[in-house]
Amino acid sequence: MKKLCFLFFLICGISFSQNLEEAIYTAAESFISNKNENSFQLLKKQEALFKTQAKTKDEQLALVFLQCHKAYYLDEHSKLKDAISSYEDALNRFKNNELSKLSNFDIIESCLKPLGNLYTKTGDYTNAVSTINQYIFLAEKSKNTKHQISGAINLAKLYQTIGKHETVLKIVDDAFKLSNSSTNQKTLLQSIKASSLIALNKYNEAALLNNSTSKFENFKNNYIVDFQKNNYENALTSLKKAKECLSEANLSTRELAKFYVEEAQLQFILKNQNVALKSLQKAIKLLIPDFKSNGLPTKNDLYAENTFIDIFDLYATIETNSKNALECYNLSFHVSELLQENWTSQENKTRNQSDNRIRSEKCIDIVYYNYQKTKNKALLFEAFQFSETNKASILKSINQKKKRLQQHPNDPLLVKEFSLIKAQEHYTNLLIKEQLGNNQASKLNALSEQLTSISLQLKSLKPNIEKKYPENKNFYTLETIQKKLKKDKAVLVEYFYGKNSVYQFIISEKDMTLQRFELSNETKQNIINFIHLFDDGSIINNNINNYTNQAFSIYNLLKLNTISPYKNVVIIPDGLLNFIPFEALLSSKTRTTSFEKMPFLIKNQTIVYNSNAQFYLTEHVTNNNNQLLGFFPVFENTNQKLTYSIDEAQAIEENIPSKIFMNAEASKKNFIKNASKYGILHLSTHASAGNSVTPANLSFYDDTMFLNELYSLDINPNLVVLSACETGIGVLYKGEGAMSMARGFQYAGTENLLFTLWQINDLSTSQIMQSFYKNYSDSQSAFFANHQSKIDYLENKSISNAKKSPYYWSSFVYYGKLEPPKSNYTLFYIIFSIAISLIVLFLFLKHRKHDRNTSRISSK
């Protein structure tokens, strides 16, 4: 009743006030003058009502003012997610109503700057960069040097957080060139530059700047230098001096908490564990002021703040009880999930996988150690689940969204979500191309604004979708995997490639094992050396004995002898193992130089790869259209002509119902227009793995398709064959794998994929592809056809020994389902069985008719 009365008087008060605009400002100013929980709750109720009534631009501007102050209060009280939502709502309102034309309200200072900082705090670096760049652009446009330098400071801090120190130095040096910077801004810039120089081990250059920083920063930088040089006692002395200057350092609560975490890390290294724990407790109580216990907070106490992750990870490292250590890591994983709830771009999610992977390895270490002591087999699957936690998680997420949309194709929420995801990748691709090309500030800003708008819309949809379709995180059990393996007559081998160890999980229909080997520098180098044997066709042929020794050594290193009894093998690689052609490994020592006679793994086992166990278990929706769409640019009259690509196309037409685009017709436009209409896609072209600046890409006759443009497509073919160089190679991210064109097709909806691991030979590729499609036509199994095409190649007497080097045939790897072959013999057997059954039935019916006739004669 009191609430109803309150609302009545509130409505009356607004109705009879001079106007709604004044009422909104009055409510906001009343809150500003007396900030507490009660006044905040009142403000929230007022805001909800004002939102329904605000119509004019003046009223909308007043609401922006209110929401910015509300967000500021939420940020001060560690309600970071709610603070971000309030700032985002204010920014949307300001842009949608074009309020910059109405007033000189400082949207940068009031909204964009704190919002960018909040994105940085919560690890949403993609939106942080976009937001900061937006207000730098606005500041440049209005010639507001103060905001330009402020933007440079925040952008530099962001790039420092993610370890891009060369970028930091460029941003800072450019900012120093701007005039009218304040003394405080100059000091901040110098401090940031000094920190990045130290991170790059440029100590002498940093020392020159260190004298112009504050006492606190000076001592703090000295601590970092000593820490990096492993002079821990000196580092402690400098840290203590920095601690004495805390009162004048003007640190935020969060910065102070981080300082105590750094202190705890140093004390732990110095084996002062109790001191370290006390510092961690100080950090926790700074971040959770109401927390009174000396233990660990519960999940309900926590919020999206990455400092918690540093705290719990260190707690777990100090903890001697394995159960308690795992609980600490689980708190870290929980905070990581809280952070990711607000992330919408896959670039941001990919960039942040590394820390989770390190944590997963530590958890596997603990479980493996417990298993060694107890031999409790239940622990093996627990370790396996840690391995799977962050393995291709972004691909898993988009795959789940697509499956959900397939089940509910008419749900407007899901349709809108998927439309926005495609638009996000489209604009990301345009942004990347602009950055690689003209780099015009106005275009970059417009694209950043588009991406920000899409991100906000995706966030607004998420709560309703999650409420309607609750996520089930327990996708499978060990029994589920074993049942599938029994059906496929296969064994599953999954690797976890960590920082210190490689773990191998082997699951068969009846058993599960876990093995570990240390990832020493020597071991890692051996793996890298083996991968580099495939850099050029001459490397293996010039020293065949070196190849056979290494191929057998890697076979033993990866402990593959234990799966020799199994014909079908599902391999889930990880890390650098993604680039190893397992089929080309040797299962025994050999002195022969004849490749045809070598004991390649492919001789006895048929291998299929996958990105994670969930993909292996997923039931695939088959496209009823099994026609092939082929693209063969050929590139005639260029130095990149693919001569044998024409033979490849002809072989396809002879074996598969197909539509082939040759030469100029093999355009990007035709691919985008037709790709979703066919069950098989074949691309015979040039491709590049890209680098840290340029994404992986694929060449059409008229244009290049970059990775993000492929992400924006929605296709569902039964099979994609990428007959091009390096389509499985790209920048490698821990857990997520290579950012390759192959991954792009997986993201776009491809579940069965044949692609390459290095620069392939035109002629041998054509020969293998001709054999592949002949076998595929007979068997309707890409799994079988891939295996058999390589066996056919090795047994082909017309091919020289040099060209039978694994460089020429083992580049193609198949990711997808294990489909048994439907051979012509099987078809013949089925027809023969039906014919025999019909004959037997005919004879039986004839015999019965004869018996009835005989019976009638007898009765007469």
UniProtKB/TrEMBL annotation:
It holds the Pfam family CHAT. The keyword Transmembrane applies. Residues 564-816 form the CHAT domain. It comes from the Bacteria. Keywords: Membrane, Signal, Transmembrane, Transmembrane helix. The chain crosses the membrane at residues 827-845. InterPro entries: CHAT_dom (IPR024983), TPR-like_helical_dom_sf (IPR011990). Residues 1-17 form the signal peptide. This is CHAT domain-containing protein. It comes from Mariniflexile fucanivorans. The lineage of its organism: Bacteria, Pseudomonadati, Bacteroidota, Flavobacteriia, Flavobacteriales.
